[in-house]
Structure formats: structure tokens, C-alpha cells
């Protein structure tokens, strides 16, 4: 049981890395901070399409990661 959960944790870790790397980059560089205004207008838009899917997938994979980590910590202590 422990080895199965550990394998699932490693697979989940790789999937989290892939999900984070596939997310589109948000361009918040120094010039946009100094110039202000222009990018702030569109900065609070709701994510749609692929970006929304990747955000939800990352959150789900993160919750699974922490649940598996807690279960493995519990199993290793007993």
C-alpha cells in the first residue's frame, strides 16, 4: 500500500511540473510596473479556455499531492 501511494505521489509530482510549465506566462516585467495603467485594465480578466483548464488541473493535482503526502506521513508513522 505504501509503495503504491509513493508511486502515485511521484507520478502526481511529474504531472504538476508539466501542468505548471504548460501554463501561459504572464508578462509582468519591470517596464509594465513603471508605466502602469495599460496592463492593469486587462489584468483581472477571468481565465478562459486552455488557461482556465490548466489552472484547474494544477489546483486538483496540488490537492491530490498534499492528500497523498499526508496519507504517506501517517502510514510511515505507524
From TrEMBL:
Cellular localisation: Cell membrane
Residue ranges of the TM segments: 6-22, 57-75
A Pfam family matched in the record: SecG
GO CC annotations, alphabetized: plasma membrane
GO MF term list: protein-transporting ATPase activity
Entry similarity comment: Belongs to the SecG family.
Protein name, UniProt field: Protein-export membrane protein SecG
Organism: Secundilactobacillus silagei JCM 19001
Source lineage: Bacteria, Bacillati, Bacillota, Bacilli, Lactobacillales
